[in-house]
Write a structure and sequence with these properties.
Radius of gyration: 19 Å
Structural class: alpha/beta
Strand content: 5-15%
CATH class of the largest domain: Alpha Beta
Largest sheet: 8 strands, mixed
CATH architecture of the largest domain: 3-Layer(aba) Sandwich
Helix content: 40-55%
CATH superfamily of the largest domain: NAD(P)-binding Rossmann-like Domain
Number of strands: 8
Shape: globular
């Protein structure tokens, strides 16, 4: 089948490799001519060093051509640019099944990626993949497992066929709300875990944070109408465990800087040169929690630490005092 990957970042290129391995006709689309030229000439992304793109994978900035007669669209665009690009997609969209690989919540609307796409394209043919999977590990063909959430039978089966193989495992779910929520909140918890590491707290304290967070995320999922058991899936515990314990996580690394109490200039430089989804998501999640009247106090504390310069050590006090 023909599969179009929107987004030429590390994750988009890694998924393109899986799709190509599974004998699909793959096109990567990027809005940036310079990025298209570099990928076409070098067959390698600077975001995935030492990982070559198969010559059969096409790379283009022509959105109309990339979407023409495609069987599946994979969304791997940073949340901050999602709406503007999906509005361009609408002009050429023909009710094609969609697989979302982007995690997060839109800042202005407080909508999850699924709802943003559904509202713009007016389709129910949307699946979500989420789980513990760094792009470099996917590209290296190491065994990884993700949750595949969808409520449309045709779309979930098509997506499963396109992506699943003997080292890229997908577990099917109907809980889109829980899957997206886990994928968003875990980035904030990963920042908190990084803060603890920066404060020189031991692994035992990190485990405490992860355990407490799982309880809170479960409550939040149920409060928003999802299935609480999703917290035990690849999208839930799996992804939280990975991003809250690995320095390879940009969110964790950002939190480490905060906990280490480095200069404001160093923090600002990291923000300027790095995509930190948890930072983008934090305010949106905070507003969502307030609007839905759901209790998740760690979100409020993280907002105070990041945006109001509250002492990072308050995170330790919070964990000790939390009922």
């Amino acid at each position: 089948m023909k599969v179009t990957v929107l987004g030429a970042g590390a994750y988009g290129c890694a998924l393109a490799g899986i799709l190509n391995e599974n004998k699909n006709e793959v096109i990567i689309w990027s809005p940036f001519e310079k990025e298209v030229k570099e990928l076409t000439e070098k067959r390698m992304s600077p975001k995935l060093p030492n990982v070559s793109l198969n010559n059969k994978i096409q790379i283009t900035s022509d959105l109309e051509n990339s979407l023409n007669k495609t069987d599946l669209i994979v969304i791997a665009i940073p949340t901050a640019f999602l709406s503007s690009i999906i509005k361009k997609v609408k002009k050429y969209y023909q009710d094609t099944p969609i697989c979302i690989a982007t995690k997060g919540i839109e800042q202005d609307t407080h909508l999850f990626v699924y709802d943003v796409i559904k509202n713009i394209l007016k389709t129910e043919k949307i699946a979500v993949i989420s789980g513990p999977s760094f792009a470099i590990d996917i590209a290296g063909n190491y065994p990884v497992g993700l949750t595949l959430a969808c409520q449309d039978k045709e779309t979930i089966e098509l997506t499963f066929k396109a992506l699943s193989n003997n080292h890229f495992k997908l577990r099917k779910s109907h809980d889109i709300i829980g899957t997206e929520l886990c994928g968003s909140v875990k980035n904030i918890i990963a920042i908190a875990a990084g803060i603890l590491a920066g404060l020189k707290m031991p692994e035992s304290t990190s485990a405490m944070l992860i355990t407490e967070s799982l309880h809170d995320i479960k409550g939040l999922i149920k409060g928003l109408g999802g299935d609480g058991s999703t917290v035990l899936s690849y999208a839930g515990f799996g992804d939280l465990l990975l991003t809250a314990t690995s320095p390879k996580s940009r969110n964790y690394s950002f939190g480490y800087l905060i906990g280490s109490k480095v200069s404001k200039e160093e923090v600002d430089n990291y923000i300027e040169n790095t995509t930190i989804e948890g930072l983008y998501t934090l305010k949106s999640i905070s507003e969502l929690v307030k609007n839905k009247d759901v209790d998740m106090p760690i979100i409020n504390l993280m907002e105070q630490i990041i945006y109001e310069n509250k002492n990072p050590e308050e995170l330790i006090n919070f964990l000790i005092q939390k009922p």
